[in-house]
Each structure stands twice: as structure tokens, then as C-alpha cells.
Amino acid sequence: MAPHRHGEKVDAVEEAMVVEERRPISSVLIIIAMQTEAVPVVNKLELKEDNHSVFTSGVPWVRYHGTYKELQINLVWPGKDPTLGVDSVGTVSASLVTYAAIQALKPDLIINAGTAGGFKAKGSSIGDVYLVSHVAFHDRRIPIPVFDLYGVGLREALSTPNLLKQLNLKLGNLSTGDSLDMSPQDESSIIANDATVKDMEGAAVAYVADLLKVPVVFVKAVTDVIDGDKPTTEEFLQNLAAVTAALDQAVAQVVDFISGKSLAEL
Predict the structure, then answer these.
(1) For residue 64, what are the β-bridge partners?
(2) What are phi and psi of 131, to 5 degrees?
(3) Catalytic: 194?
(4) What is the rounded distance in angstroms from the CA atom of residue 77 to the CA atom of residue 64?
(5) Which listed residue (87, 108, 224, 248) is catalytic?
(6) What letter would DSSP give residue 24?
């Protein structure tokens, strides 16, 4: 038998990718960082908590699951820190739970939903809900050629022009870091990232999803205006409950739109 030529292999891979993009989506993994953000979505989609964890023993990660609009839905949040009892926010927990959930649940698509800070200079207001175009880190500064690009970790979210148009959501870039506040160095990096919204998980989810070749959509609702008049912590806590209601509605609308469609139709 004659050996396959390199071009034939490339063609086969491209053909397989086209077939995958046109296959109806059947399994969606929703990753949410905080219990306050997760519970309304769980209730809206009528998901049930998993009493027999698919994850390794000892981790605090929580999974809810169910069938909604003919989609198999899994929602995972990292749970409470075993020592301090607070939500396990940040990039480390997000990376771990994303990797473990992809391995265990084999989703067709990931939705990373959550609250975020927004920038008035970019047109953000409290309660705005964004789909994300690109995501990058703003607190991994490695001023060495090529390592600097690795630190930023720029990645593109799944393009969803039909979803964006149908739901009339805003579109912007997301910048991720492990601090709620914003240092001058972070601010410079966020400006360089051309970010409209800022969170503590997105770029970590994107990194793992890219490694394991699972498309990801980001839905972010603005709780605080970072370049506004109020302190970030105060405004975040003040608006968290109301904004999670907007987030819950947006996530449900996104899932409704996804039902019965392929990746190419989004």
C-alpha cells in the first residue's frame, strides 16, 4: 500500500473538523466560579446536584446535571475552599475544574458564565451582558521575548455571530487576573489587551479548553464599573444579586439558542 501523502492527511483532518462543526451540539458544560452565580442558573435549567461525584475524592468541586431542550447540561463550580469556606475563585481553581470536567464529561461546548468588572471608557454599565471575542491574562508579566506572549496568553473565543445578533448582547474582549482590584501594572496590561470586561477565571478556562480542543463561549455580566466613582469591592457586593439575575437570564437564552444547532450555526 502506498504511504499517505502529507496533503491527504491535512485534507482528512480538515474534513473531520467540518463534519464536527456541522454535527448538532448534544452536550454543554457550564463553568461558573461562585455559588451565588451558579444557583439561579441551576434553578432556571432545573438541574440536579450529583450525589455520586465524577471527580476525584476530596476535591470540593460541585456538579449539577440534567437535560434541557434536548441538551445534556452539566454545570460545575469549584465549590468552597475546604479551609476558609469561601468560593474557590481565581485561575488555579478554574484551570483544575475545567480540565477535570472536560476529561470526565466530554462536552461538545463550554460556556464560561460569570460576573465581571466593566470599563466606562469602553461603554460598560452595571447589568450589561457581554459575549467575549478574545481573552487574555493581565497579571502574568514575563518581559522576555516570546515568554511575554505566553504570559498574555491571548486566545479567541468561539465565533458566534448568529447568537450575538439574535440575543442582542454586547461584544468585547475579556482580561483575566487573580486580583479583584487593579494595580497600575494591571491597568496597563488591560489597556494593552483592549479589554472591555475583567474577571478572575476566563483566560484560564480558555487555556485549558484550547489545550483539549473544546470550543468555549464566554457570557459575562457587569457588576462594577472599574473606572467609575465607587470602590470596586463595594459596588461588586452591592450589585451581585441583581446582576446574577441578568446573568441567569442570558445563560438560559444562550442555551435555548444552542438547542438543535451545530457549532457552525452559532
Answers:
(1) 49, 75
(2) -90, 145
(3) no
(4) 9
(5) 224
(6) B
187 is catalytic: no
**pLDDT per residue over 238-254, tens digit each?**
888 889 989 999 999 99
Separation of alpha carbons 129 and 242, rounded Å: 12
Strands 62-68 and 71-77: antiparallel
Low pLDDT (below 70) residues in the chain: 1-20
Alpha carbon dihedral 199, 205, 210, 216, in 10-degree steps, equals: -80
pTM above 0.85, yes or no: yes
Quick one: cell of 178?
487573580
pLDDT in tens, 133-152: 999 999 999 999 999 999 99
The C-alpha angle 35, 40, 44, rounded to 5 degrees, equals 140
Query: Which residue intervals of the chain are DSSP H helices?
Result: 6-22, 35-44, 91-105, 147-152, 161-167, 184-192, 202-211, 232-258
Q: Give the active site residue among 37, 108, 139, 186.
A: 37
